[in-house]
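From the shared-data thread, chain only:
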Amino acid sequence: MKFLGLLSAKYAYFLDFMFLAGSYLFFFDNFTFDRAFVYTGVTLFVNHFFNIYKIHWSLFSFNNLENHFLSMIGSVGFLLIYNASIDAKSLTVSQVLITHFSGHCVLLALRFVSRWGHFKLRDLKTGKQKNRKILCYGSEKATLGFIDFVLKGPLRTFEIVGFLDDNIENVGHYIHNKKILGTLKNIEDVAIKYKVTDVVISSSRVAPEKISEVLQVCFKLGLKVTRIQENILPDGRSGISNVLRPLNLEDLLERKRVQVDLLDFKNEIQKKAVIVTGAGGSIGSEIARQVLDKEPAQVYLIEHSEYNLFKIFNELQEEYPSLKKRIIPVLLGIENEDQVQEIFEEIKPDVVFHAAAYKHVHLLEMNPFSAIINNINGTLNVLKHAAQNGVNKFVLISTDKAVNPTSVMGASKRICELLVSSYARKFNESTFCSVRFGNVLGSSGSLIPILEEKIINNQPLTITDERMKRYFMLIPEAVSLVLKASMIAESGDILVLKMGEPVKILDIAKKLLLLKGKSEQEVPLIFTGMKKGEKLVEELYLKGDELNTTHEDILVLPESRDRQFKNVIERTEQYAIEMIELALNNDARAIEMLWTLLENEISHKEIKFEKAI
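Structure, as tokens:
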């Protein structure tokens, strides 16, 4: 193989000259040495001009034929002029075309033979290592690139045995000499017949239910399932991790991914000072990333966890090397008003995304004072000093648990929404809004990572109730909708992201087991009963008040339509201040005030208080 490579790389001009001149003299009687020399020289010169000799022979493909075609046209032009004006014994135009076309065929044959020899030698050398056989499901453009990758690249232990295609009319046809062996219904029979070891989902349009079907068969047969990376054009130098990826929960969730156009968002952010609180969290860090894409003047990352701040600061500096000086880490707890005041007076931010919050329902039921001090007091501090320092836009990241709250966490976030709308009334020159959505896949400390860890360790999966449902969305798409919502919001609005249909937690647990190749016998499902503050199904809004916006996946609950605001909004801030004072002193009356403030929105008549420990 190295010998062929050296020949094609170092001696291409010499080899082309020898074979081309030799073919002219051997096959055409009317070619003399001087004519063969001229014809060959012109061809080599024009080939050089069209970069023919920069193409490695062992990697030559049909994609390179365009260069040869252009070279052939160019050299024919030169030779026709030479033939008509200089050559004493002129050839006819047809003779020039035939001989020159034949000459280029010789050059192409050299390259294809070299390529063929390169891979045949490689196959002879590594043939015994080909112990993994791939069955591809799907036949899109990406599939062709993947086949080229297997043929050219480092996947020497892999061999493609064929394809499955959902279109039965395609069965029996060939792709790169590999047969379409059947449809998805035939997967088990095909896998057994051809001793398949790996199934690669090579189409981006495979429905989640079909991927689940593939997984179930492959799990039973002990086959590995991977998927071609989206937006990857593999080549012979790529690593396997750049071409194939393991399946994830997103592949199995039966929901359409939300598409968000954020082109206009750049005008909102470019050359602006932006603060992101809770910047080390899953949502806050993604907000920072998408904001940095729009070239702000500065992004201030406010975070109370030293480790989380260190981690996100380093990640963003690596991802945005040209914006390093614009990324400023701020180690700060938002419950400390003096520190919040100092940093806001120094920055005077244009835009604030307030994502900092305690969010774990069960923990906050056990530590309700922390919910008030961090969530409510922290939000009030950030709101107050953002407003006093002339913020242009303030966006609160809220939650579906704020609707008809049954938990301290949900109640605290509902108070935060009311505070934001209260400030919208007091400061007309700025826009204050809240964006409410449900669970996001893979956020730190959330359900999915916890279930995955238990599956890996073969620990039972504890689910509170088999009927429990939750809304789920991917972090990037949730944040994109947050940014879009901030653009279309009017001051005082609560915007709600549509998240499709709620998904059963039980179904998610079973899909995760399938993804990890585990059975319910290995990892049993245990139902523990609902914990205090939990709901069977979360709500995103009280139906009847919602309005459509300019984006189909964003609804708005404007203040004028929210019946509850008019009764409580005027006294929200004063109530909140008194509640915070009590919470700071571990006074149980703070919890009573929390629910009293929301008494018009919830049905609780007797609030049980579990003392923080």
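The longest strand covers residues 158-164.
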